[in-house]
Amino acid sequence: MAGLRSRWHTRRVHADLMLSLGLVKTALDTYLELQLWEDVILCYTLLEMKHKAAETIRECLETEETVKLYCLLGDVTDDIKCYEKAWTMSKERSSKAQRHWGNNLYCKAKYQEAIPHFEKSLELNSLQESVWLRLGYAALNIENWVVAANAYRNYTYLEQREFEAWNNLAKAYIKLGDKERAFKVLNEALKCNYDNWQVWENMLVVSIDTGNFSDSIRSYDRLLDLRGKHLDLEILEILAKVITDEKLDAHGQNSKRYLDHFQKLMGRISISHPNDYRMWLIYASLPLKEILVCPKLMKAFKCLTQGNWTSDPKVCEEVVKLCLDMAKLVLGLNVDGKNVSVTDKNEIKEQLSSVRLSCKAAHSAVKNARVDCEKAEELLPQLEEFIDVLTKKVTALL
């Protein structure tokens, strides 16, 4: 008997190999001899001969009626009555009957109808990975987040290496408002697939919402590694603010401790997005040494004043306000202090001169603009005063 079982197993493995190589007809012949009806049906389906599969199953049913055969007949004939018959035959105890019934509806994208059958099948046998997965996907499609979360959670108990399941579980938790659990689940997803940028993007948002700011910066860094470019100004603004305001993170730590890491991140972003003025303004808002701030504001100014910028009243107003901020900043720099290095003194002088020229250029452009820049023009007298002070300061330092 052991030898017969061994020979039977060897023939099945051989048939499986033939099928994997695309030799469907060869595999079919062996499956028919071994009476492996599910494999027979698969082969007939691949050969577009479902009618032959149905014919074979009906011949078997004439010999013996079984739940399995009725389920397979339902699969090839698309007749729901076959599943009903299988369910009745099993005295409503066959997880297989409910699974096949649910799969039939699932493949037609009738997700709402498929869910009760999957749930019933799992009540009878909870160790069905594929059914948990399909239940989760069906629930996800109809936005039944409670069922989706339960399904994917149970699937991950059985299979921990499928990152998409972890990611979908996190999505369900997010929709349910449970971002703490979503954060933990996304960490599991990343263990399975460290190179999936969508998971890192989800982690970026969830870690912000849960106060895990270190993970947010790490996620942003990883996104840049994977995609080369990524600009999320809302996220960057939040991180800059929590660091500047020294907010406590999820672990009760002062967020200012992340300044160096975030500054390096902003440096990377500035290389990939050098022409986004909002990015430069966020960069300049960090609690940096004052002498390092003005160059970033100057780059924001350069980005804003490209092309025909005076045709937009809002841009005109923003440019003038930026000029006022730059003027206030450079005039506050201590160029005559005893502890100021020669290098810093020269840098401050250069910044004073550059800001003065930028302010004068902006003043002239807004004043001569062909559109009504009323709000910007209201700020011009104040800008003129700063230009005078800057001119005197620059002259005195010559």
From TrEMBL:
InterPro entries: TPR-like_helical_dom_sf, TPR_2, TPR_rpt, TTC27/Emw1. The keyword Repeat applies. Pfam families: TPR_2. Keywords: Repeat, Signal, TPR repeat. It comes from the Eukaryota. TPR repeats lie at residues 163-196. Gene3D superfamilies: Tetratricopeptide repeat domain (1.25.40.10). Residues 1-15 form the signal peptide. PANTHER family: TETRATRICOPEPTIDE REPEAT PROTEIN 27. Belongs to the TTC27 family. This is Putative conserved secreted protein. It comes from Xenopsylla cheopis.
